[in-house]
């Protein structure tokens, strides 16, 4: 427990300087082993086990401890089978110091659990990468443990009040196959080397700062916890996120054997909500891959129609879409895909018949006949009604999503 005492002592001395307070740590025999001001060091305050005296100490205040009488507030920080720590102070602010000490102790405890085979003096030498992995695992854990996460933030000297968003990078490492013969001899070591290089590229991004966290999440995801100073104009922060993701795309585009997708979640100013941001980023990637499989970066601007279709009201589907699908299904039970594809090209070209015909490589008259047939079957006229055009566009995207359902990973 020496390393734990060291961390607590450093924390006590740092925070007790803001107001007059003294912190004491006792071993299981009631002897003072740490004192922030050096007083009573080595003294035995209790004849029996100090835990038995906890309630008496709290109720009686500092006078029960044999310290200055004007130290009226006494708060227990931690107690277990090995030691017992409390703080005596003149101010009620002692509660804030006790919280800092407690989170410091919990943080070191987490490091001890994560590194059971390492000597205690080396525990504080945990690499930044390992610490970031622990932070990401704690932030995204289900169920979420706020006290544990806060302790890890304290240890890493991270500000938990900053505005943050999760950037998720989903990676697919390309394989080498010829017909049914796998040519991946030595493939796994190459992938491990590539993973190491990719995380180095991401961490070296020019927009990152010391308050940011970057770590792998599983085998194929990199999670970036990007921090920002709180800004009253939140739209500017989202523009900054776009710029950061575009920068990451440029840097990763040359990575060997790598195909990747990037998206970010909503901004939150509390660390307990960052799991929501992670889920939102994964959702955006899941939606974007269906409509734009060749793109690397997805944001809500580029897939807004697809997001709307993913969360349609049930009445829109049952009352509007299902009747339209039935009308567009021929006698053989086959959906008239050519009508829908032609209509989508017409809508996407801003109702420009010539441009739409060029895009799908059909004659102008053929396209015109298809739109007329769709009008006769559904009663919708995209050429003269914006609402009809919107309904048809949403229907087409909805059908595409239903045929390409993507299961979101936990």
Automatic annotation (TrEMBL):
<comment type="similarity">
    <text>Belongs to the CdaR family.</text>
</comment>
<dbReference type="InterPro" id="IPR025736">
    <property type="entry name" value="PucR_C-HTH_dom"/>
</dbReference>
<protein>
    <submittedName>
        <fullName>CdaR family transcriptional regulator</fullName>
    </submittedName>
</protein>
<dbReference type="Pfam" id="PF13556">
    <property type="entry name" value="HTH_30"/>
</dbReference>
<dbReference type="InterPro" id="IPR041522">
    <property type="entry name" value="CdaR_GGDEF"/>
</dbReference>
<dbReference type="InterPro" id="IPR051448">
    <property type="entry name" value="CdaR-like_regulators"/>
</dbReference>
<dbReference type="Pfam" id="PF17853">
    <property type="entry name" value="GGDEF_2"/>
</dbReference>
<dbReference type="InterPro" id="IPR042070">
    <property type="entry name" value="PucR_C-HTH_sf"/>
</dbReference>
<feature type="domain" description="CdaR GGDEF-like">
    <location>
        <begin position="203"/>
        <end position="285"/>
    </location>
</feature>
<feature type="domain" description="PucR C-terminal helix-turn-helix">
    <location>
        <begin position="339"/>
        <end position="391"/>
    </location>
</feature>
